[in-house]
Amino acid sequence: MAVLVTGGAGYIGAHTAQLLRQRGRDVVVYDSLELGRREATLGAPLVVGDIADADLVKATVAEHGIDAVVHFAAYKAAGESVERPGKYFATNVGKANALFDAVQEAGVRHLVFSSTCAVYGTPQSLPVDEAHPFGPESPYGESKRMAETMLGWYDRAHGLRSVSLRYFNAAGASASGLIGEDWTVTLNLVPLVMKAALGRIPELTVFGTDYPTRDGTGVRDYVHVDDLADAHVRALEYLEDGGETTAINLGTGVGSTVREVVDAARAASGVDIPTVDAPRRPGDPAAVYGDNRRAQELLGWRADRNLDTIVASAWQWHSTHPDGYDTPG
């Protein structure tokens, strides 16, 4: 039997598909290639299509003997979602609904869902655990919360059991050196730091230097993408072993400041990365980091790679692939 990875040509999806294959699983990638890259699939079978195409989804499940789904395909830019909420609800909720219908009708009973800590909004307490109240502050976060709610009802109605994995800040690149983050489609801090290190932007803008943190800059919980991939595999195994539908945070349990990320990048690259200070952005909390005890308890998972390893792997990827997958081989 095989695993269908929707959005498997994107950043975290590609790393998860790679690890599933390394661990002996048959994998089929399903991706529209709107934001994903064919090269990131590393030769895995690829079905190009829309997750809302129920006939194609069902045909793919039948043809490849799919018995589990890992669902990444979604839009994920929180800022854009505030400006274009319809785009996010149409895809992250409406098309996800169509996908859930199609796969359960085709007999799939296990699904791992790519969710986000954005379902919590600004933390009321730290570290953030799964009992923290919902308070999404963008249509992106709200759309992921709604998809999680749908999955709870799909279990009750159809027996489609699921694990929703609420990531904190995914970063880094594969230890294989073959895949990494495409900075043309992301506004995340680590690739922006790499752009500054490689001279693709003149300087890194540091938004907010007067937060009540150890150096005045914002604190976030950075998790290596290979550690996230490992959590998805473990979540799938948890369901296959009879685990119940649930949601689990994926964080390191500690936070790093913006200046600490920049310093780690300077050490990895040997470049004195230029920065410029700017005022806080509206809505940015001072600190966000996750409680990972539930992941340890249910999945036996914890993040193995620290900030230095994350940044060094990102530098290795971006410095050898300055134009991403379009870099000449």
Automatic annotation (TrEMBL):
Cofactor: NAD(+)
GO BP terms: galactose catabolic process via UDP-galactose, Leloir pathway
Protein's pathway: Carbohydrate metabolism; galactose metabolism
SUPFAM superfamilies: NAD(P)-binding Rossmann-fold domains
Enzyme Commission number(s) from the entry: 5.1.3.2
Keywords: Carbohydrate metabolism, Isomerase, NAD
Domain NAD-dependent epimerase/dehydratase: 3-251
Catalyses which reaction(s): UDP-alpha-D-glucose = UDP-alpha-D-galactose
Keyword NAD: yes
Enzyme class, spelled out: isomerase
Pfam family, any one: Epimerase
Cross-referenced Gene3D superfamilies: NAD(P)-binding Rossmann-like Domain (3.40.50.720), UDP-galactose 4-epimerase, domain 1 (3.90.25.10)
Family annotation (InterPro entries): Epimerase_deHydtase, NAD(P)-bd_dom_sf, UDP_G4E
Subunit structure: Homodimer.
Family the entry assigns: Belongs to the NAD(P)-dependent epimerase/dehydratase family.
Protein name: UDP-glucose 4-epimerase
